[in-house]
Amino acid sequence: QKRYSITLLPGDGIGPEVISVAKDVLKLTGSLEGIEFNFQEMPMGGSALDLVGVPLPDETLAAAKNSDAVLLGAIGGYKWDNNAKHLKPETGLLQIREGLKVFANLRPATVLPQLVEASTLKREVAEGVDVMVVRELTGGIYFGKPRGFRTDENGEEVGFNTEVYAAYEIDRIARVAFETARKRQGRLCSVDKANVLEASMLWRRRVTAIAEEYPDVELSHMYVDNAAMQLVRNPKQFDTIVTNNIFGDILSDEASMITGSIGMLPSASLGSSGPGLFEPIHGSAPDIAGQDKANPLATILSAAMLLKYGLEEEDAARRIENAVLDTLNKGLRTGDIYSTGTKLVGCKEMGEAVLRSVDSQVHAA
Ligand code: NAD
Ligand code: IPM
Ligand code: MN
């Protein structure tokens, strides 16, 4: 019997709804695969602010660091939107990414055959799309200094941030991306704004240098504005994309829509050692929170990534992935992926259906 400790961070909005479902899926999968999970739920984001006054309590970060993997729902909400920066839920999220040193964020956008109808793109454009976005997660403009507010010489209020990358930060994310591409179709597209930004000029130079270590991977470069356009023009041209923190944030939301919904996209955030952080790419969706409307599949698939990338439990991961496909084959859909002829269900019912499918998989194929 293998044992793992998992820190659960439900967070805010739909976070607790999707985490509750994903936890049940992990538990059942574990019991069928000879794995015992020891779950510890900790506060973070807005709920931590309300409880103890900070978005990432020390105890939460310590628990996360001491566990084998961390599964996060989502954080944020209108209530805290006007808080000072250090008292924002989002700051807690950046702190835990930084605290766990998870610099590499893998965001797979796969168009499942069952969901082609849910894509906003035409069938022939969407069908078969399988893009892995490798997003740098602990650097760039999100963390760069100087940053802040000041008053300029005309008495005008100014807000400012700094896009900054050190060579070692680019080198290590580039290596993760080349390794990732090597296991896929062997094509890596590095996305930057090297025609304008110095941080991108260095990015392109370093990625090109690291490519020497990976002669089997075909490297191309693209400016981010063109990449945003190409993603909706012909997404099948992409295999693996590597990009900085902010471009990766934006392009992965865009890529998610090709797959039918942002409610489908999971992610894995990994460092060079220590526990990984696994979370859906979507936010706390305050517009649908508390209504049992959230699509839990992005979080369930994040739990599968936790098993695969965090614990190297590939059979268990595959069991969950197959259960998701099986559930979609049965025609169940939450509102965000609904199309005519399918059955509209809520978050809980979708979760229960996935549980049944996890259970009914005699052999994890
Ligand atoms: P969002 O991703 O929360 O929602 C965008 C839209 O997608 C909304 O219409 C929402 O209803 C829908 N949506 C998102 N997830 C869904 C799901 N699982 N099922 C069905 N529909 C879903 O982005 P936003 O509205 O820009 O941000 C809301 C809050 O979430 C903000 O406070 C933001 O800072 C925060 N946020 C947190 C994370 C995170 O925790 N990782 C990520 C993004 C945004
Ligand atoms: C995400 C979110 C976060 C980000 C925010 C909430 C800080 O959009 O996880 O994609 O920008 O990284
Ligand atoms: Mn985002």
From TrEMBL:
Pfam families reported in the protein's UniProt record: Iso_dh
Catalytic activity: (2R,3S)-3-isopropylmalate + NAD(+) = 4-methyl-2-oxopentanoate + CO2 + NADH
First-level EC class: oxidoreductase
Pathway noted in the entry: Amino-acid biosynthesis; L-leucine biosynthesis; L-leucine from 3-methyl-2-oxobutanoate: step 3/4
Keywords tagged on the record: Amino-acid biosynthesis, Branched-chain amino acid biosynthesis, Leucine biosynthesis, Magnesium, Manganese, Metal-binding, NAD, Oxidoreductase
Example of a GO MF term: 3-isopropylmalate dehydrogenase activity
UniProt-listed Enzyme Commission number(s): 1.1.1.85
UniProt-listed GO biological process terms: L-leucine biosynthetic process
Cofactor(s) demanded: Mg(2+); Mn(2+)
Residue ranges of every copy of the Isopropylmalate dehydrogenase-like domain listed in the record: 5-354
Cofactor note: Binds 1 Mg(2+) or Mn(2+) ion per subunit.
Signal peptide span: none
NCBIfam families: leuB (TIGR00169)
Assembly description: Homodimer.
Function: Catalyzes the oxidation of 3-carboxy-2-hydroxy-4-methylpentanoate (3-isopropylmalate) to 3-carboxy-4-methyl-2-oxopentanoate. The product decarboxylates to 4-methyl-2 oxopentanoate.
PANTHER family linked: 3-ISOPROPYLMALATE DEHYDROGENASE
Family statement: Belongs to the isocitrate and isopropylmalate dehydrogenases family.
Annotated protein name in UniProt: 3-isopropylmalate dehydrogenase
Organism: Linum tenue
